[in-house]
Amino acid sequence: MATQNQCETPWTAVPFMPERLSLPQLRDAAATCRGCDLYCNATQTVFGEGPRTASVMFVGEQPGDQEDKAGKPFVGPSGQLLDDALVEAGIERSEVYVTNAVKHFKFEPRGKRRIHSKPNSREIEACRPWLEAEIATVRPKLIVCLGATASQALMGKDFRITKEHGRVFRETEWAPAVVATSHPSAILRAPDPEARHRAYGQFLDDLRVVRAEMARVTREQADASAERKKMQVRREMHPGTEDRAGAAAEKARPNGAAPIRRRKNSKVGRQAE
Ligand code: URA
């Protein structure tokens, strides 16, 4: 096994990005990412998972020991806690997209164990193109940041989860809504059962905010769909009387494609337009 920093890397995932932004192509390309030196010691890239059409994306920090072995996000103890809390909050995990800010496991070997080590800002920045590409492809209506690393990666270095957890930030550069909450591992690390119980309760409260926001998005989508159907019926009943606003919108968006929301100076997302 190579030791950390032995590997020559460009410190960005950009050279590894595929031509086209689709989840299967992104996943394949990310598998060979050498954008930072974390690939040297990790078993494999752990890319995000979930439906391409998910309206909600959960973003964690980085895969842990079990995720590194399985190649899937949130399947270890943190994933178990997340799954339990999602059930309690009434959120279907199979309906959400789950990923991490950093796609390789960073750890310190201690005997036979591999102890989680927090990714630094250079590693988070190098890995950011993958997260940006996932967001540009899935186009979630709501992003849920789990813990400080994900929150600060998306909401800026000054973001404080202790202060802002459970709040809905609207019209962000990433998605129409962003909510931050604790990382499940912080709950598992609580110093005593009482603190853990409190932290879990707060986590659940935040997930209920997410659930309410998901219900709002679903209602909005249903309303928009009903409105589209109404317009369709109107067009069929009165052929030739095209709705001007609708026609103008169609012209601006050939094939009905929604415009890509791109972050200022983003290095990805251009191909998808
Ligand atoms: N912690 C994370 O942030 N992500 C995982 O996938 C597992 C643990």
Describe it.
The protein has one domain: 3-Layer(aba) Sandwich (Uracil-DNA Glycosylase, subunit E), CATH 3.40.470.10. 42% of the residues lie in helices and 11% in strands. It has nine helices and seven strands; from the N terminus they run H-E-H-H-E-E-E-H-E-H-H-E-E-H-H-H. The strands form two sheets. It has a five-stranded mixed β-sheet with strand order 2-1-5-7-6, sandwiched between helices. The protein has a two-stranded antiparallel ribbon with strand order 3-4. Bound molecules: uracil. Residues 60-64, 67, 73-74, 76, 78-79, 100, 185 line the site of uracil. Uracil binds next to helix 3.
Named CATH architecture: 3-Layer(aba) Sandwich
Largest sheet: 5 strands, mixed
**Global structural class:** alpha/beta
Straight-line N-to-C gap: 41 Å
The mean pLDDT is: 90
- Tell me, briefly, the overall form: globular
Which descriptors apply to this entry?
single chain, 273 residues, alpha/beta, Uracil-DNA Glycosylase, subunit E, 5-stranded mixed sheet, two-stranded antiparallel ribbon, 42% helix, globular, disordered C terminus, binds uracil
Secondary-structure map:
Elements (H helix, E strand, L loop, with lengths): L22 H8 L25 E5 L4 H6 L6 H13 L7 E4 L6 E4 L2 E4 L4 H18 L3 E5 L1 H8 L5 H4 L3 E3 L6 E5 L2 H5 L4 H45 L6 H9 L21
Parallel strand pairs: 1-2, 1-5, 5-7
Antiparallel strand pairs: 3-4, 6-7
The site of uracil (URA) has 13 residues, from α3.
